[in-house]
Amino acid sequence: IMRPGTLVSGNVTFSDGMSGTWQLDQQGRIGLIPSTEGYRPSQDDIQEFQIKLQDALHKAGY
After folding, report:
1. E strands of 1-62, at which residues?
2. What is residue 41's DSSP assignment?
3. Does this model's pTM top 0.85?
4. In DSSP terms, which residues pair with 6 in a beta bridge?
5. What does DSSP assign to residue 35?
6. pLDDT tens-digit profile, the chain (62 residues)
7. If DSSP codes are grouped into helix, strand and coil, which group holds residue 20?
8. β-strand 6-13 against 30-34: which pairing, if any?
9. Of residues 24, 15, 23, 10, the one with CA closest to residue 44
């Protein structure tokens, strides 16, 4: 189910095996909802995620 105001969304699994869902809103902001409350991915994981997401969105025409 797409959240209101969300353009695209998906799932992500970080290097430590923890996962969550992500969403990109109409203003270009990325949101991350971890599957475990209070989880925060490492800075390295966040940077890698953002690079891969940007590349995938660019290829998809966003």
Report:
1. 6-13, 19-25, 30-34
2. -
3. no
4. 25
5. S
6. 667 789 999 999 999 999 999 999 989 899 999 999 999 999 999 999 999 999 998 998 88
7. strand
8. unpaired
9. 15
